[in-house]
From TrEMBL:
GO terms for biological process: SRP-dependent cotranslational protein targeting to membrane, translocation. Transmembrane segments: none annotated. The keyword Endoplasmic reticulum applies. This is Signal recognition particle 54 kDa protein. It comes from the Eukaryota. It catalyses: GTP + H2O = GDP + phosphate + H(+). It comes from Daucus carota subsp. sativus (Carrot). Component of the signal recognition particle (SRP) complex, a ribonucleoprotein complex that mediates the cotranslational targeting of secretory and membrane proteins to the endoplasmic reticulum (ER). As part of the SRP complex, associates with the SRP receptor (SR) component SRPRA to target secretory proteins to the endoplasmic reticulum membrane. Binds to the signal sequence of presecretory proteins when they emerge from the ribosomes. Displays basal GTPase activity, and stimulates reciprocal GTPase activation of the SR subunit SRPRA. Its main location: cytoplasm.
């Protein structure tokens, strides 16, 4: 997606005259890209019309940075769609709140209930889990297992088949036990769809939750809007959580879910594990959707591995085109230190696919180690240079011999370095580097 939007904007900034035709072509290109990212057709069309109203063709012709103006307009429009105008109900620590989770089977409800509980527990809350899914065999076991692992109290039954009864009993019990966050997991399937929505209505009516959270799988594509709307029509959905954002989906469905429920996204799920759960932040999400890279998330992660006082310098160097082999070596060291790189560098488009493609982590690690051995045979001058001409044939042969490798291995590493340097340059060129203290902005 990012690629095609960038391309569309590039084409436009290359055009000497921006007339209605050029603008339309550019917008059509962007429309296609957003649709591929599962943004709902109607939202895309409305956005397109809004942008046409906002973007003043006269201004564009007068030599402004056209690309920036359009990019900013798209960015703002997408952010607007994700902001329903009012925040979700926020439970208060120490005061009992009941939170009901709804969503189709397989969307990630049970997993997300535990993540949500665990997240708050770490912050000093007293959460509890109630399993009101009596339809699916094994639902209670799954919740029980999750809850036990996280040491969170739970309630459910193997015998009782009435979800309303369990929900009400569970909520009562945990209120007595002074839990301040009572989380109710529900069923996601029924023999008939209408029965599921009726059940949700009844459970909600009986226990009067303070907040209903709609859980949606990010990979459901264009079905997002209708699904979200169907739940909203039976219960008072007040917040959305998008799951499986670690997969291939770009998450355009999030826009549909917000539009259909008029509720904000509050968290996203980024993996199967309990702590793969993040607060949702509109701007980084839209940046990622547009392929600009998620800077704030990247900054947070980079804190953990690169000493704080080195970060601005590193980014500064990269943005000036000074990506040396030594920097590559140091980044490889960091990568090996922090494990699966996918999670860190996937936020920076261009890095992840190159360094550690999903599913090939083992091979990539071996490759990184191989590269590092070869770099160990390089001179300081070679490591600190950005000039590939230093690497002549005889040096390449020396490095291969010194590291017990073939010439073609060295060539492969140099090629990878060149490609990476090109990518990093094209993305960080002219980036404004935050100063110390503004890092997480
Ligand atoms: P439910 O039917 O809505 O309760 O969904 P479950 O919680 O049982 O989840 C269905 C599947 O999705 C399980 O295999 C989960 O491990 C998986 N899952 C849930 N959330 C995520 C996520 O954020 N990322 C990934 N990769 N898998 C997830
Ligand atoms: Mg479940």
């Amino acid at each position: 997606l990012g690629g095609s939007i960038t391309r569309a904007l590039q084409q436009m900034s290359n055009a000497t005259i921006i007339d209605e035709k050029v603008l339309n072509e550019c917008l059509n290109e962007i429309t296609r890209a957003l649709l591929q990212s599962d943004v709902q057709f109607k939202l895309v069309r409305d956005m397109q019309n809004n942008i046409k109203k906002i973007v003043n063709l006269d201004h564009l012709a007068a030599g402004h940075n056209k690309r920036n103006i359009i990019h900013k307009a798209i960015f703002n429009e997408l952010c607007k769609i994700l902001d329903p105008g009012k925040p979700a109900f926020a439970p208060k620590k120490g005061k009992p709140s009941v939170v009901m989770f709804v969503g189709l089977q397989g969307s990630g409800k049970t997993t997300t209930c535990t993540k949500y509980a665990f997240y708050h527990q770490k912050k000093g809350w007293k959460p509890a889990l109630v399993c009101a899914d009596t339809f699916r065999a094994g639902a209670f076991d799954q919740l029980k297992q999750n809850a036990t692992k996280a040491k969170i109290p739970f309630y459910g039954s193997y015998m009782e088949s009435d979800p309303v009864k369990i929900a009400v009993e569970g909520v009562e019990r945990f209120k007595k036990e002074n839990c301040d966050l009572i989380i109710v997991d529900t069923s996601g399937r029924h023999k008939q769809e209408a029965a599921l929505f009726e059940e949700m209505r009844q459970v909600s009516e009986a226990m009067k939750p303070d907040l209903v959270i709609f859980v949606m799988d990010s990979s459901i594509g264009q079905a997002a809007f209708d699904q979200a709307q169907a739940f909203k029509q039976s219960v008072a959905v007040g917040a959305v959580i998008i799951t499986k954002m670690d997969g291939h989906a770009k998450g355009g469905g999030a826009l549909s879910a917000v539009a259909a429920t008029k509720s904000p996204v509050i968290f996203i799920g980024t993996g199967e594990h309990m702590d793969e759960f993040e607060i949702f932040d509109v701007k980084p999400f839209v940046s990622r959707l547009l392929g600009m890279g998620d800077w704030s998330g990247f900054m947070d992660k980079i804190h953990e591995v690169v000493p704080m006082d080195q970060q601005p310098e590193l980014l500064q160097k990269l943005s000036e085109g000074n990506f040396t082999m030594r920097i590559m070596y140091e980044q490889y060291q960091n990568i090996l230190k922090m494990g699966p790189i996918g999670q860190v560098f996937s936020r920076l488009p261009g890095f992840s696919a190159e360094l550690m493609p999903k599913g090939c982590e083992k091979e990539s690690q071996a490759k990184i180690k191989r590269y590092m051995y070869m770099m160990d045979s390089m001179t300081n001058e070679e490591l600190d240079s950005t000039n590939p001409k230093l690497m002549n044939e005889s040096r390449i042969m020396r490095i291969a011999r010194g590291s017990g490798r073939q010439v073609r291995d060295v060539m492969e590493m140099l090629e990878e370095y060149k490609q990476l340097a090109k990518k990093i340059w094209s993305q960080l060129k002219g980036l404004k580097i935050p100063k110390k203290g503004e890092m997480s902005a």
